[in-house]
Amino acid sequence: MEKNSFIFNTNKCVACNACVAGCSIENGTDFRVNWREVNTGNKIKHPGLPVFHFSLACNHCEDAPCMKNCPALSYTRDEKTGAIIHHAEACIGCTYCTWACPYDAPKFNPTTKIVEKCNFCVDRISDGKRPACVEACPVGALDFGQLALKEEDRVTPGFVDMGIKPSIQLIPLREEHSTPKIENTDKVEIDPKKIKEWLPKAKDKVALDKEWTLVLFTIAVAGLFAWQAAHLLSFLPMQLLPFSILSVLAIALTSLHIGKKMRMWRFILNLKGSWLSREIFSFSGFLGLTGLQLITGNIWFGIAASIFGILALISVDMVYKLLQRKDNLLLHSGMVVLTGIFFFAWIGGISIILETMILLKAILYAWRKISLRAKNITYFPMLSLLRILCLFIPYLLFDLEWEQSLAILLPIVFVGEIIDRAEFYHESDVITPEKQLRMTS
Question: What per-residue string of b and e applies to 404-416 under the rule 16 or more CB within 10 Å gives b?
């Protein structure tokens, strides 16, 4: 079946950025936010590697992850043209779509506090014209047409194909152009292992300095669930006022991560497709039902709250399934489900569960550090030692029935979990064309 598609010829692109300028002029975009970008392979121009360029914008995928994962339903598909349209008036600026898209198409605008992206020049192509970026290309590297795309149309080094059927045909670099001919026989050989060191630092979509509020929020979700479950089973008292204060703080933490706070209600509109919607819905249900439990003393509200709390923990972990971790392991010791169970066992003093969770977390943590070290990735040994001590020393003192140990040692346990969760964000990122090109260099 034919559909509107971009056509990009790697052999012709000279990285003049005329396509970027054409897009910006047509759509009146902010000079800091380019809907189309040109990424270059071999930025250091190493003579033993091919020099080529990728001009990419939104590829208007058939199974568009931005539309599928947006919690606010701010994306729709134009059935006539196949364009994925972003609706600014519905966007909450959570940036989750920027994590979901492997082509770095949705861009967060710091001025408007919302996301924006290429609209396929839907008005132009509806009138039979070509997109502005295509019209601006002076060398014919970028084109547009009705194509019946096949999988082999997207098999090109440096291009991410995740099975989401992007509307683009790629004409790959010809073999005779893959390695430029070097006439200088006295050229200095460059160690390929050092190439990555010489490259400029790539932009990180996920970084600890930007996600510290999420570190605290996810720990808060685990802690509030553990407290409520322990209270339900009569392990620990719980009062409405302190619970309410902590709940408001948790909500405040997550609101700091979104651009349009007055649109927060839109978070729950995509329960069908978005784990972020499910996370906010289940956590909100947990808070509301726990409040009713504390006000009425009705155990059924407490049971329902625990169910919603479990769903919230699962949803938090599923939100991050989009990320790529440097260790490439299936499980992480900082997963919120594990932390919630761990906190519950601590508060309830359930030794068998506590011992199991300490052992499991320690094994997962050590396994991850060994994996990072084997890949020559920074793993912060002194911080790692502190994290391990925060696991075992509190338990040893607790096991010795040290007086008032819970009130003193729980903060230490929290510090250890914060370290682990912070490392989760530090060691995670999303796929982007720029980083994919680095992998192929």
Answer: ebeeebbeebbeb
Give the C-alpha distances (Å, rounded to integers) separating 17 from 20, 56, 243, 413: 5, 11, 54, 52
> Is 440 a domain residue?
no
Q: Does 102 lie in the same domain as 46?
A: yes
For position 434, what pLDDT does the model report? 78
Query: Which among 182, 151, 195 has a CA at the least distance from the CA of 437?
Result: 195
CATH number for the domain harbouring residue 61 = 3.30.70.20
How many domains, in total, are found in the chain? 2
pLDDT tens readout for residues 37-93: 998 876 656 655 667 788 999 999 999 999 999 999 999 999 999 999 999 999 999
Domain that holds residue 126: 3-200
CA distance 56 to 412: 47
Q: Which residues of 296-321 are buried (b: 16+ CB within 10 A; e: fewer)?
A: eeeeebbebbbebbbbbbbbbbbbbe
Q: Are strands 428-429 and 324-325 parallel, antiparallel or unpaired?
A: antiparallel
Q: Would you say 46 and 54 are in contact if contact means Cβ atoms under 8 Å apart?
A: no
Question: Same domain for 36 and 82?
Answer: yes
In a domain, 438, yes or no: no
Give the pTM.
0.89
Q: What is the pLDDT of residue 439?
A: 63
